[in-house]
Amino acid sequence: MDNLNSGQITALAADLEKLSSDLREQIELAKPAASTVVLDQSKVGRISRMDAMQQQHMADSTLQHTKKRLKLVSKALNKMSEDEYGFCELCDETIAFARLQVNPEAQLCLKCQSQQEQQ
Ligand SMILES: [Zn+2]
Fold it and tell me: Could you read off the pLDDT of 57-75 as tens digits, one per residue?
């Protein structure tokens, strides 16, 4: 498969930068909900403590997921600055541009990714 051309890299760099700032924003917004069980007295009766804990748990797992994705985005940006972006970490093949457009932080080609998911 052909390597990415510079126009494609530029487009993906912009995607990654945007993704990075979007994810940071999401993390900031999710932090309060994820770190504390809401003990707002005005809500007692309408929302049980159990519900509050469940909501906190959900917010926390969303937060962890977002943090993980941000890590991959940062990693991809690092690779980009070292001209190593767009190659599969396992087989060294070029990752398809169409795949990177959907998932610019992808570290694996489609083949390796689906193999990993089967394990
Ligand atoms: Zn691969």
Answer: 999 999 999 999 999 999 9
